[in-house]
Amino acid sequence: MTRLAPAAVFCIGTELTRGEINNTNATWLADRLTAVGLEVSSIDVVADDAGAITSALERLSQSNVLVVTTGGLGPTTDDITSATVAHWLGVRRLRNAVVLDGLVERLARAGRQLTASNAQQADFPEGAEILKNPNGTAPGFAVSRQACRLFFMPGVPREMRPMFESYVEPAARRLVQGAQHQIRLRCFGVPESKLNDELSGLEAAHGIQVGYRAHFPEVQVKLLALADTLDVAIARATAAARDARARLGSAVYAEGELELPQITGELLRQRGLSLSLAESCTGGLVGSLLTQHAGASEFLLGGVISYSNQVKVAQLGVEPAVLEAHGAVSAEVARQMADGARQRFGSDLALSLTGIAGPSGATAGKPVGLVYYALSTRTETLVRDVNVTQRPREGVQLYAAWCGLNLIREWVLGTKAP
Amino acid sequence: MTRLAPAAVFCIGTELTRGEINNTNATWLADRLTAVGLEVSSIDVVADDAGAITSALERLSQSNVLVVTTGGLGPTTDDITSATVAHWLGVRRLRNAVVLDGLVERLARAGRQLTASNAQQADFPEGAEILKNPNGTAPGFAVSRQACRLFFMPGVPREMRPMFESYVEPAARRLVQGAQHQIRLRCFGVPESKLNDELSGLEAAHGIQVGYRAHFPEVQVKLLALADTLDVAIARATAAARDARARLGSAVYAEGELELPQITGELLRQRGLSLSLAESCTGGLVGSLLTQHAGASEFLLGGVISYSNQVKVAQLGVEPAVLEAHGAVSAEVARQMADGARQRFGSDLALSLTGIAGPSGATAGKPVGLVYYALSTRTETLVRDVNVTQRPREGVQLYAAWCGLNLIREWVLGTKAP
User: Fold this and answer.
1) Do B393 and A292 lie within an 8 Å CB cutoff?
2) Cβ(A71)–Cβ(A155) under 8 Å?
3) pLDDT by residue (tens digit) across A121-156?
4) What percent of chain B shows pLDDT beyond 70?
5) Chain B CB contacts of A286 below 8 Å
């Protein structure tokens, strides 16, 4: 087995210490470094202040093999990272001619001329490795201090992330003794404790580590294999994933980066099935989730946001007597909403949702969080219910939306629960 | 003028150093401490590790007057904050009888019995101040070390935030020499650079500091007054806010915590105006934004997600000849969608949106990001367009949704641009 080498994430920026923006870079870097097989010992954030930057660099470089830094590489007077690092290392800054030419060219394309502020983005500590930035003006750089390698990258995520993948990730992999491979199973509809029970003994059986990450409304299961060679690590993780999928069945909706709304949409597109929606308690959320990704027009015809009873009757054909007898939040109304949407839109499938998002609206026998949802198809109409407890209004809506999307997925794949 | 006292934010949790969750606590605390008038010198995150916690506490307590800590107060073996702090200070841990009784009672209400793990949540370093937690089982605590006051709170945001407001904020205010008052103006539809131009000279005129925070799709303008007494600080900030509002006009949609969707919804509810929606490129997002907040049923009747042309015709009465002549993304179709929704739903107002969210779909003269939106009322139908450039698909959708909501707000208030 391998031993985890310690790494540090270090973010520079007064906009961070003032709480003006969320530090998504830190989370992203910590996740990626952990996935490579390093142990992130700390995340540090300081303002654009030379003293604070220097003392953090000194401390972090003594106890880590890798320090990954973001921020302070721009053209303004706040951007002091490069000068501060040079001073800390006791070296000069040198202007890099290749980088300078690139800057001039880039500015010229935007119809601008090089200023002194821009030019300083071509100054680097003597001996530094330059990290190219195809997505912005500020290149990054890397230096060494005793046993520690330090990378400095811009704070803009779309510039930082490709730079990390080109330069830092390969260097990080070389620091990990042995090899590792991770597979991430995305699960929905089963609580973390039950997943944990179902996967009992998986670690010992396959020589892997199992981790759970609750990322509402889903839970991700991480299967991490550490071994002497990459082939062995991949084989172990793959065998463990096969075993886990056999145990968890339809609860695993995907591996990798895509979330359920995209998975479901892509499935409909591939199968050539059209969809319409009838949303009450979710108020348009299912439509919004499906249309956040390009290509939704290939399967989504449209929908009705039937927030009031009058709209359920007039736009979806729900019978007033059924509303009266069972209430708007009922299996019967969910069924009529879905059937009505499918008929009126002429779609292959229609999904409906009606429930009590809260915080008020509960009645006897119908608590806050109770949602009925139905899937109308050419052959059958499935009606389900879920009770989303201990979640605020937005949580009830999001969980219910995913339940509906998951029912579509299971029906299309033929894996739906009876 | 006052001098800013240094404070540190310190978050404990392996789920953070592994990048499993975003550290929203750090951002929230840094923002609130800055607003009180302290200078946040650093944000530190370490794993659930006694050595790492101890060395951070030692370092942070030497250079700050306040350290605000979250995490590690739960009942599991990972939760070592209290024991680690006691060891660091060289004091015993004592079981607090009042806290223990509260734990027993809380567990009994959930039908559970006290376990040894639960009971340790009633153990605190000798001499610590107990911070009550009405929203969970783990109380917080505060201790002093030389000139530094250290607060320890749970990591769950809905438990941490009220605890901060009850205990930490008042203590933080006492550390600020002099007084300060901040007013936050929420602006939409005007870029930061233009706001900056319009507010030129505001700082000198009122003796305040002006800060900008771009929080897409809005920009917040922070007016901070520092003075010897609170009365003077409030008077200065208030005068500056009045001046700023006079300069910026309708671009300022609110002061305080509520966002545009809630502001617009509340306005409709107060005026007794009903609304329906016809959403094409936003796919249900406007409905979703309005129904995230309780009380939407008092003004929102419903809507149509008219993602396809056939739905625009069948469900909203858009004329096929108009679609053919002008295209789905046009002022004419936006107008017919809004008028059609208002008639079919019988609402006082109807909002429509149709545009090109991207990344594909652009045509000659109609770039990605172009959105037409219309507000149909009993007396007139207003049609507007916006071109949301340099934003991904979700950004185009969100900005367009806010444009629509802002048009409703301006029309209801009678402040709409001609």
Assistant:
1) yes
2) yes
3) 899 999 999 999 988 888 999 999 999 999 999 998
4) 98
5) 284
Q: Cα-flanking dihedrals φ and ψ of residue A190, to 5°? A: -125, 130
CA A205 to chain centre: 30
pLDDT surpassing 60 at residue A418: no
* Percentage of chain B exceeding pLDDT 90: 75
Considering Cα of B12, then B17, then B18, then B22, what sign does the dihedral take? positive
Q: How many CA atoms lie within 13 A of B371 on its CB side?
A: 28
Contact: A34, B47; criterion CB under 8 Å: no
Q: Are strands A370-376 and B370-376 parallel, antiparallel or unpaired?
A: unpaired
A75: nearest Cα among A22, A136, A150, A131: A136
Residues near A155 by Cβ (< 8 Å), separated by ≥ 6? A11, A12, A13, A25, A70, A71, A72, A73
Please choose, from the candidates B247, B257, B249, B267, the residue with its C-alpha nearest in 3D space to the C-alpha of residue B183.
Answer: B257
CB contact under 8 A, B296 and A283: yes
| Whether the predicted pLDDT of A411 surpasses 60 | yes
Task: Give percent of chain A with pLDDT exceeding 70.
Answer: 98
* Residue A17 to residue B407: CA distance in whole angstroms: 35
- Quote the CA–CA distance of B301 and B376 in Å, as a whole number: 15
Tell me what percent of chain A is helix, strand and coil, each rounded to the nearest 5. Answer: 45, 25, 30
pTM of the entire predicted model? 0.82
User: Is B390 in the A-facing interface, judged by CB distances under 8 Å?
Assistant: no
Residues 6+ apart with CB under 8 A from A165: none
At residue A417, the pLDDT reads 54
Q: How far apart are CA B156 and CA B161, in angstroms?
A: 9
- Say what the alpha-carbon torsion angle B106, B111, B115, B118 is, to the nearest 10 degrees: -30
The count of CB pairs under 8 A between chains A and B is 242
Q: Once rounded to an integer, what is the mean pLDDT over residues B59-75? A: 93
Residues of A within 8 A of B392 (CB-CB) are: none
CB B184 within 8 A of CB B222: yes
CA nearest neighbour of A211 among A349, A34, A404: A34
Instruction: Please name the residues between 135 and 174 in chain A that touch chain B, using a CB distance below 8 Å.
Output: none
Question: What are the two backbone dihedrals, phi and then psi, of residue A380, each rounded to the nearest 5 degrees?
Answer: -160, 160
Q: CA-to-CA distance for B110 and B112, rounded, in angstroms?
A: 6
User: For residue A236, which amino acid is it?
Assistant: R
pLDDT band, very low/low/confident/very high, at B392 (cuts 50, 70, 90): confident
How many H helices and E strands in chain B? 17, 17
pLDDT at A221 over 50: yes
Q: Which two tokens stand for residue A347?
A: 């779609």
Which tokens belong to B300? Answer: 């929102």
* DSSP reduced 3-state for B206: helix
- Nearest by CB to residue A52, choosing from B41, B287, B393, is B41
Of B17, B28, B315, the CB nearest to A19: B28
Task: For A199-339, list the strands marked E by DSSP.
Answer: 209-215, 218-227, 252-255, 275-279, 300-305
Element counts in chain A: helices (H) and strands (E): 17, 17
- Prior bond of A359 cis (ω within 30°): yes
Confidence of residue B281 (pLDDT cuts 50, 70, 90): very high
Which among B128, B114, B6 has a CA at the least distance from the CA of B66? B6
Question: Residue A296 and residue A417: Cα distance in Å, rounded?
Answer: 26
Q: Within A116-229, where are the H helices?
A: 116-119, 157-163, 169-175, 192-198, 202-206
